[in-house]
Amino acid sequence: MKHPRRPILPLLGESQSKLHSRPIRKRDPDQPSLPFDPMPLRVEPCLALLKPTVPVGPDWLYEVKWDGYRLAIHIEPKGVRVITRGGHDWTHRFPIIVAAAKELGVTTAILDGEAVVLDDRGRSDFGALQRSLGGRGGKRVSTESILVAFDLLYLDGHDLTSTELDVRRHLLEDLIPEGGDQAIRISEELELPAEDLLEHACHRHLEGIVAKHRDRPYRSGRTGDWLKIKCVQSESFMIVGYEQSASARGGIGSLLLAGRQGFDWVYLGSVGTGFSARDAEELKKTLDRLKTSRPVIPLKGKRLVFVQPTLIAEIEFRGWTDDGNLRHASYKGLREVQDNAAVFDMKGILGR
């Protein structure tokens, strides 16, 4: 004789209230077969902290420092999106990279990397990248740019930002084979001893080295998980005016540069090399539209023209003079607003 089945009692928590399972996560209609992690619309990038020397130890991974525009490549079922560091959609500017992303054979992914134009020795050339895009504010489509990918943040329904770099790197290498001349390439790990890396990079006229903690998750901002060590210093400075020249082609003798110190601007010297006559002509046209009678830096000079602090220039330099100005400065190009470049901050770097 069967005994009547007893009713199943609910599981009780410490407060004697019923325990309920979490509701089943709704599937993304764009990813119907992936009930895992929803794909983020955007991930704020992890940024490298500037350091004077290469860190040593087995916990570090080393790569070349690429000189270009930081991009996130979002591969989705509906297509590919190219997002700049500042969060702007530049999909239409990099059609070759978009086409290559579609050929990777994944349903969903987010690649973190740098759009670059390479010279004949395989080095990234920031000026060439800018020219390929039509200069600052240009609308040109770049057909010369490639993407050097160095991180994988999302893959086929899985958010990888909480996993350590070694795992993300392994998955990236499976997705993008090393070598070849594709429009999407992997930033290869440097296998030289850490003590020799910077000398090796500088000897080949590279910008520098990036060192990354192997066991760290992907964290946005300058956390110290990634470090950059440069051969030649290169930073972003605000253009606050220019010195007129009757002899220089384009009418600009030099650009007046400033950095941040708290909420104030500090004059850091001028740069008169690195730009062509054509660059100078374009700069003068743009700067003349920004003229102001109220300079943010109190400089004196008959030939000085002051402008509103709007244009950010990437400047290469060899160090600092005793009075705190840039030494052997050379103009590399203007930074785009979409690139979200941070103006050089004096605090904690020059001890001011």
UniProtKB/TrEMBL annotation:
<dbReference type="InterPro" id="IPR012309">
    <property type="entry name" value="DNA_ligase_ATP-dep_C"/>
</dbReference>
<dbReference type="InterPro" id="IPR012310">
    <property type="entry name" value="DNA_ligase_ATP-dep_cent"/>
</dbReference>
<keyword id="KW-0436">Ligase</keyword>
<keyword id="KW-0614">Plasmid</keyword>
<dbReference type="GO" id="GO:0016874">
    <property type="term" value="F:ligase activity"/>
</dbReference>
<dbReference type="Pfam" id="PF01068">
    <property type="entry name" value="DNA_ligase_A_M"/>
</dbReference>
<feature type="region of interest" description="Disordered">
    <location>
        <begin position="17"/>
        <end position="36"/>
    </location>
</feature>
<feature type="domain" description="ATP-dependent DNA ligase family profile">
    <location>
        <begin position="138"/>
        <end position="230"/>
    </location>
</feature>
<dbReference type="InterPro" id="IPR050191">
    <property type="entry name" value="ATP-dep_DNA_ligase"/>
</dbReference>
<dbReference type="Pfam" id="PF04679">
    <property type="entry name" value="DNA_ligase_A_C"/>
</dbReference>
<protein>
    <recommendedName>
        <fullName>DNA ligase (ATP)</fullName>
        <ecNumber>6.5.1.1</ecNumber>
    </recommendedName>
</protein>
<dbReference type="InterPro" id="IPR014146">
    <property type="entry name" value="LigD_ligase_dom"/>
</dbReference>
<dbReference type="InterPro" id="IPR012340">
    <property type="entry name" value="NA-bd_OB-fold"/>
</dbReference>
<comment type="similarity">
    <text>Belongs to the ATP-dependent DNA ligase family.</text>
</comment>
